[in-house]
Design brief:
The protein is mainly α and 329 residues long. It has 13 helices and 6 strands. The chain has 3 domains: 67 residues, no CATH class; 55 residues, no CATH class; 174 residues, Lysozyme.
C-alpha cells in the first residue's frame, strides 16, 4: 500500500513517477499511517516474496522546482557511480566536468605536472586563471544505496514517530552511511555521524565502555533531538535576521537545516553574513555552494549537493525496483 499525505493529484503524480498502479477509486479519504503533518509523502513498498515493508520519503519539490537539473547534484550522481580508480576533472565553482582520467595516473604526476595540467584545462575551456580545478575520484565503493534501504526505512519510521520531518533521516542516512558504519576524520560515528559531545547532549551514553552511537534507534533518536531542538530552531533564527520567509516543508529550507546539522549554526550564520541574502529559495542554497566562511568550506558546501544527488539516486532505484523487483500497491 502507499500512504500519502496530500491531495488526490499528488497521489496520481507520485504513482506515475514511481510506476505504481493507482487505486481503482479515490472517493474514500486516504488515512495516513503516520502522524507527521508535513507535505512529504511516505511511500510503503513491499518486495516480492517478502512481508517486510520499506518506507521512503518522496518530495515533488525536487522535480517541480528543477533541482534535478542542477549541475552540482548531477555531478555527484556521476561520482557516486564511478569506480575509485577513475576521476573527474571539474570546475570547483560550477562542477562542470572537463575530463575523465585514471586516478592512479593522476596520483603519479608531480606537483608541477598537476599545475601544468590544470593550466591547460583553463586555457582549453577559456576559464579564468584563478578558477579552481578539482580532481574528484569515483566513490561507488562507498555509495551502495541498496545496502542502506532497511536503515533508511527504519530511520523514516523513527523520525516520524518522534514528530520530526523524516526527510532529514532519509537524507542524512543516504549521505553518511550508505555502505557501513565508520568513523569520520573528526571523530563522528554511527549511522547519523554524531560527535561524542553532541551524542551525550542528546541522551546517548558514550564512554570507554559503551558507545550508544552504534545502536541505530538510539542514534536516530539523538539525531532527531539535535534537529528538532537545535538545527531547525537555529535555521529559523538565522533566516529571521534577514527577514526571509519559508515553509518548513520547502526543500531549500530543509537543505539549509542540513547545512546546520553538518557545519553548525555558527558557520552558517557567518556564511549568510557574507552572502547578505534578500530572499531564500534555490538561489540562497546555490550562493552557499559558492561561499566560504570559517569552517564552512568545500565539504560543507558539498553537503546539500550530496543530499540532492543521493535522493535523486534513491528515487531512480525505487522506480526501477517498482518495475522489476517490488510489488507496489
Amino acid at each position: 500500500m502507499i500512504f500519502l499525505k496530500s491531495i488526490q493529484l499528488s497521489l496520481l503524480l507520485v504513482a506515475s513517477v514511481f510506476g505504481i498502479k493507482a487505486q481503482d477509486s479515490y472517493n474514500e479519504p486516504v488515512v495516513p499511517k503516520y502522524e507527521f503533518k508535513a507535505a512529504s509523502e511516505i511511500v510503503e513498498i513491499i518486495p516480492y516474496n517478502d512481508s517486510v515493508s520499506h518506507y521512503f520519503v518522496y518530495s515533488n519539490h525536487l522535480y517541480d522546482e528543477r533541482w534535478d537539473t542542477l549541475a552540482q547534484p548531477n555531478f555527484w550522481i556521476k561520482i557516486m557511480t564511478l569506480p575509485p580508480d577513475s576521476c573527474l576533472i571539474n570546475v570547483a565553482s560550477t562542477r562542470q566536468i572537463l575530463a575523465i582520467e585514471s586516478f592512479k595516473d593522476w596520483q603519479k604526476k608531480t606537483d608541477e605536472q598537476k599545475t601544468a595540467y590544470r593550466d591547460s584545462m583553463r586555457w582549453c575551456y577559456g576559464l579564468d586563471s584563478l578558477e579552481r580545478i578539482f580532481v574528484t575520484h569515483g566513490q561507488n565503493h562507498f555509495y551502495r544505496f541498496e545496502n542502506v534501504f532497511p536503515s533508511v526505512s527504519r530511520g523514516v519510521e523513527v523520525f516520524n514517530d518522534l514528530g520530526v520531518d523524516p526527510f532529514y533521516a532519509q537524507a542524512i542516512l543516504l549521505i553518511e552511511s550508505p555502505n557501513k558504519l565508520q568513523y569520520s576524520k573528526n571523530g563522528a560515528y554511527g549511522s547519523f555521524q554524531l560527535m561524542k559531545t553532541v551524542a551525550r547532549k542528546h541522551g546517548l551514553r558514550v564512554d570507554k565502555y559503551v558507545d550508544e552511537r552504534t545502536d541505530f534507534d538510539k542514534s536516530a533518536y539523538a539525531a532527531a533531538s539535535l534537529l528538532s531542538k537545535v538545527c531547525i530552531p537555529e535555521a529559523k533564527r538565522i533566516l529571521a535576521k534577514y527577514n526571509l520567509t519559508y515553509n518548513e516543508t520547502d526543500l531549500w529550507f530543509r537543505l539549509f537545516v542540513m547545512h546546520i546539522y553538518h557545519a553548525g549554526a555558527g558557520n552558517i550564520n557567518g556564511v549568510l553574513g557574507e552572502i547578505q541574502p534578500t530572499s531564500g529559495g534555490m538561489g540562497l542554497i546555490q550562493a552557499m555552494w559558492r561561499t566560504e566562511w570559517g569552517g564552512f568550506k568545500n565539504s560543507s558546501q558539498n553537503y546539500s549537493q550530496l543530499a540532492l544527488a543521493s535522493i535523486l539516486t534513491l528515487n531512480d532505484l525505487i522506480y526501477h525496483k517498482c518495475d522489476y523487483l517490488f510489488e507496489c500497491k
